[in-house]
């Protein structure tokens, strides 16, 4: 079975979020179980420098973008057994950022048609094209309207994966003719129209054969008006075609037993070495060096979705509890400034690192005791999965993938790998934190919770098998 993943980013080339982790890892696990997966992404300006010179130029051709004819170069690279294609056009992709430009509609209109035309140009025909998020949403539309009767293209099936329904790629309705040379009937009949715009996300959902999203709970949530972002009715109508499959993490990249980025390797049988990481990080971040003080971690984008409002609400109260707080990430200025304020007021208690660094992230996961992730909504979430792997206990809100992966600790049975709260409410969040601090002081109880966390299985192995079943249902 041949599957082509289409996405706007992928590790190890370039990353802004969890989508890149999925597209960079899942294909490798699929290869292990007999699915021949390949990947195609844009060739951005900021592709990692150690890889850019290893790309092999294959060929070039021209892609129609409405009345325009645009250059398209194809580069290829094989990484850990998976073939990656990178689509090159410097006008569209040689920019400092991946998204957020006035012409994003045109940029990804080019990309979507370029993907389909590339198949014929390199003589590669997949059985399934697996599209990911709004940037790829017009590919199944173009295929169904223009390509499916062509002998070369006939029989390709489409899976569309929703990683975050909030970002929909909604653009002026005139792009149908201007960028795609499509008749306005597809806007008028509602198949690509959403709230007066052409929606790449809605288009991908409507024109794909099956739909998936990144956790079972999120698949249910997006069929409700609260989480559905004006697409809940469409998603309910396609409920029988909608699969929820949890993301995993790469257990080779995140493994405290052999992680070269952390200060001292450890396992669930040797948690003393986790303490070595904590003491060394405290020293490096100029915090009080104290093995007994609970260290809280936040590694996140600073946005309302990630629960930054309720973290800001409890910040001073939290610091007053004789804890340490280590923060890593960037985002909205108001939250960045708040963490800087806390760090300046409590320099030996709070470390605010307003940037992102992968090495520091690994060290924080390995060193901390407790991981905060009180998201307003969370399709899947990777932070809590990595924290579990390193024995850092998550406190999460019960939504999406957080609900599916964190089993609240039960003091009567001793079961559970973390803690959770239901309502998006700062007081409820703080109440759970107080309970967690009580358990933290009971060393035997805490040690058992840490071991349960580290025994959680969130590798890609199980999810890859489910994706294979989903692909087989399409053929």
In short:
This protein has 19 helices and 18 strands. The protein is α/β, with parallel strands linked by helices and 475 residues long.
Can you offer a commentary on this structure?
This protein is α/β, with parallel strands linked by helices. Helices cover 39% and strands 19% of the residues. It folds into two domains: 261 residues, Rossmann fold (3-Layer(aba) Sandwich); 186 residues, Rossmann fold. The chain has 19 helices and 18 strands. It has a nine-stranded mixed beta sheet, sandwiched between helices. Helix 11 packs across helix 14. The longest helix is centred in the N-terminal third of the chain and has 19 residues. It is globular and about 70 Å long. The termini are close together.
Distance between the termini: 9 Å
Q: Shape from CA axes?
A: globular
Largest beta sheet, briefly? 9 strands, mixed
Any guess at the CATH architecture of the largest domain? 3-Layer(aba) Sandwich
| CATH homolog superfamily of the largest domain | Glycogen Phosphorylase B
Please, how many domains? 2
Low-confidence stretches: none
Assembly state (oligomeric): single chain
CATH class of the largest domain: Alpha Beta
Structural class: alpha/beta
Count of discrete alpha- or pi-helical segments spanning 4 or more residues: 19
CATH topology of the largest domain: Rossmann fold
**Helix proportion range:** 25-40%
Gyration radius, to the nearest Å? 23 Å
- Beta-strand content estimate: 15-25%
- Count of DSSP strands: 18
Mean pLDDT: 97
Q: How do the strands line up in the largest sheet? A: 3-4-5-2-1-6-7-11-12
């Amino acid at each position: 079975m041949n599957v082509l993943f289409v996405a706007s980013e992928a590790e190890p080339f370039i990353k802004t979020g969890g989508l890149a982790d999925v597209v960079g890892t899942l294909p490798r696990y699929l290869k292990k179980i007999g699915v021949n997966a390949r990947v195609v992404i844009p060739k951005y300006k900021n592709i990692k420098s150690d890889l850019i010179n290893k790309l092999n130029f294959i060929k070039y051709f021209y892609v129609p973008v409405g009345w325009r004819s645009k250059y398209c170069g194809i580069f290829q690279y094989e990484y850990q057994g998976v073939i990656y294609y990178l689509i090159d056009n410097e006008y569209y992709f040689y920019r400092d950022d991946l998204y957020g430009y006035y012409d994003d509609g045109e940029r990804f209109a080019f990309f979507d048609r370029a993907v389909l035309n590339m198949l014929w140009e390199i003589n590669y025909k997949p059985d399934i094209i697996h599209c990911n998020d709004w940037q790829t949403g017009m590919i199944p539309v173009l295929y169904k309207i223009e390509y499916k009767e062509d002998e070369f293209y006939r029989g390709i099936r489409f899976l569309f994966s929703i990683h975050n329904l909030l970002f929909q790629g909604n653009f002026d309705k005139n792009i149908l003719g201007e960028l795609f040379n499509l008749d306005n009937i597809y806007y008028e009949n509602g198949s690509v129209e959403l709230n007066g715009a052409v929606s790449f996300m809605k288009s991908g959902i409507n024109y794909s054969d099956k739909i998936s999203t990144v956790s079972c709970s999120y698949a249910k949530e997006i069929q409700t008006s609260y989480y559905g972002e004006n697409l809940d009715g469409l998603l309910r109508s396609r409920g029988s075609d909608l699969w929820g499959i949890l993301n995993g993490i790469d257990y080779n990249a995140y493994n405290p037993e052999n992680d070269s980025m952390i200060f001292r390797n450890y396992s669930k049988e040797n948690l003393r070495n986790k303490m070595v990481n904590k003491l060394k990080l405290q020293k490096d971040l100029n915090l009080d060096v104290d093995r007994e003080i609970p260290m809280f971690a936040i590694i996140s984008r600073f946005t309302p979705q990630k629960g930054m409002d309720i973290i800001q609400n409890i910040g001073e109260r939290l610091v007053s509890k004789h804890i340490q707080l280590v923060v890593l990430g960037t985002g909205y200025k108001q939250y960045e400034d708040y963490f800087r304020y806390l760090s300046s007021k409590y320099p030996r208690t709070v470390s605010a690192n307003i940037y992102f660094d992968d090495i520091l992230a690994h060290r924080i996961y390995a060193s901390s005791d407790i991981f905060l992730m009180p998201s307003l909504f969370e399709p899947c979430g990777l932070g809590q999965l990595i924290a579990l792997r390193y024995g850092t206990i998550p406190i999460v809100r019960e939504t999406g993938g957080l609900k599916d992966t964190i089993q609240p600790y039960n003091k009567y049975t001793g079961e559970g790998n973390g803690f959770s709260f239901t309502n998006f409410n700062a007081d409820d969040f703080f109440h759970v934190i107080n309970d967690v601090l009580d358990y933290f002081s009971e060393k035997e109880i805490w040690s058992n919770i840490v071991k349960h966390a580290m025994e959680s299985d969130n590798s890609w192995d199980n999810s890859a098998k489910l994706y294979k079943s989903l692909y087989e249902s399409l053929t």
